[in-house]
Amino acid sequence: MTEKEFWVFLSKSLARGRIPQLSGYRNSDDKLVDAAGAYFGGHSVLFEGHENLAKDIIVEIGELISIPDVTLRAKEAILMILAHHPSKEALWALTKYNKNPDKGLEYTAHFALQECEWWNE
After folding, report:
1. Whole-number Å distance between alpha carbons of 108 and 84
2. What's the pTM value of the predicted model, to 2 decimals?
3. How far is residue 37 from each of residues 29, 42, 50, 62, measured CA to CA in Å?
4. Are 62 and 79 in contact (CB under 8 A)?
5. Count of beta carbons in the 10 Å neighbourhood of residue 19
6. Amino acid 32: pLDDT
7. Closest CA to 111 of 60, 53, 63, 41
8. CB distance 85 to 116 below 8 Å
9. pLDDT under 70 in the chain at which residues?
């Protein structure tokens, strides 16, 4: 899957329905608090049935986060989807990515891995 194909896939998936959303306001000078707030906001890319994606799709999008030319915006969306998938494939992709995350996505990658670990308990 290419980044362009991922965006088409995500757009079609979101058109079928989004999960209920949470909104909030954050005002902190603490980098970790700010990162956590941004992570919570990233849940907006979750669509109905995201947790039931076929494992081959999880593997494909999991490979995208390791490609240097893929945008940070795409990687952030992918991290969120992987974080909520109860599979070893998602957990493996996030574990691998956390060894060398892109600059600017360090906290997002860490939070995504933690959440995926919870979904896989």
Report:
1. 13
2. 0.80
3. 12, 9, 21, 23
4. no
5. 15
6. 57
7. 41
8. yes
9. 17-28, 30-45, 47
Joined together, the tokens standing for residue 77 give: 């969306």
75-79 long-range Cβ contacts below 8 angstroms, 24+ apart: 75/102, 75/105, 76/42, 76/105, 76/108, 77/6, 77/10, 77/42, 77/45, 78/6, 79/42, 79/105, 79/108, 79/109, 79/112
Cα separation, 53 vs 80, whole angstroms: 13
**Residue partners of 72: CB distance under 8 A and separation at least 6:** 102, 104, 105
pLDDT at 99: 98
The residue with tokens 């088409």 is 8
